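Backbone-to-sequence.
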């Protein structure tokens, strides 16, 4: 029995030791908080339920800051500041002001230790925070918590009137969906009606601590000059209905009369519709 107990124990310890060594090796190169010794224990403190995967690569952090095209006088909003890895890189740029939203009080304390007059840390839930209360011209960025990334992006669209640009790290799969490079869903149409979207780069999981199970991707949203003025809740309800089934023909989802009026073939399926066709149908249904 004793032998068996030992056998089961050893692999666990080896795994732990390997993890620690690889983390120590990475730490040399990394943009960890100044009290980085404490950060070795960070993984213990990190909360899975809040999607806390710290982006360690200085290279990737700098690319994100670059993609945001920060120039003098810019106001930036970072979502999910965590340990402040990205925040510090952003502060190297000539921005005028940076707001950091973070839900976890422990992380908020860490962020508040960053000494820079330009930073304001706010403990808040980014899925429902009134983003326009921070200004009317905000560049938004963040390594988003993946479990609520779609909800956060939905909230960005809600407050689009004050957000001309966003550069966001999301799960690669979600990123591809949002920019329309994979099977579209309601969120694809929801975002692309108001923003031009692009997929900028993929980021492998080894750049994070702890490693997420999925590959990540950086996307950019640029607000369109001309976007329709419509009721977001009603539009979302329409889109979720439209994308409720891949197999169903749109003729089985909406009245044939409305489809014909919008010039659409009732035999089409949701993913075959262009953005213009979707909007046309929405407008006919809303009339
Ligand atoms: N920016 C950091 C951490 C990213 S992890 C880095 O790149 O290293 C995602 C962060 O979002 C975590 O710190 C987590 O606590 C925070 N978070 C999770 N849910 C949130 C929410 N609803 N609103 C705001 N922040 C949230």
């Amino acid at each position: 029995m004793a032998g068996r107990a030992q056998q089961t124990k050893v692999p666990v310890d080896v795994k732990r030791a390997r993890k620690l060594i690889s983390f120590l090796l990475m730490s040399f190169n990394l943009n960890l908080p100044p009290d980085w010794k404490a950060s070795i224990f960070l993984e213990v403190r990190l909360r899975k339920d809040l999607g806390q995967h710290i982006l360690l690569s200085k290279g990737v952090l700098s690319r994100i800051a670059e993609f945001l095209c920060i120039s003098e006088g810019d106001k930036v909003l970072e979502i999910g500041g965590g340990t402040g890895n990205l925040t510090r890189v952003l502060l190297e740029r000539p921005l005028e002001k940076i707001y950091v939203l973070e839900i976890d009080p422990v992380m908020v304390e860490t962020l508040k230790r960053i000494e820079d007059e330009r930073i304001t840390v706010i403990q808040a839930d980014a899925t429902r925070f009134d983003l326009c209360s921070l200004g009317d011209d905000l560049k938004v960025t963040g390594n988003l918590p993946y479990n609520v990334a779609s909800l956060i992006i939905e909230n960005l669209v809600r407050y689009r009137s004050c957000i001309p640009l966003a550069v966001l790290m999301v799960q690669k799969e979600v990123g591809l969906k949002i920019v329309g490079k994979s099977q579209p869903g309601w969120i694809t149409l929801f975002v692309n009606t108001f923003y031009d979207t692009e997929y900028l780069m993929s980021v492998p999981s080894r750049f994070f601590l702890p490693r997420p199970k999925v590959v990540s991707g950086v996307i950019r949203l640029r607000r369109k000059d001309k976007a329709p003025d419509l009721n977001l809740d009603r539009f979302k309800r329409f889109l979720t209905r439209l994308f409720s089934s891949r197999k169903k023909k749109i003729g089985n989802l909406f009245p044939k009369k409305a489809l014909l009026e919008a010039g659409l073939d009732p035999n089409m399926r949701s993913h075959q519709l262009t953005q213009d066709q979707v909007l046309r149908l929405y407008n006919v249904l809303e009339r």
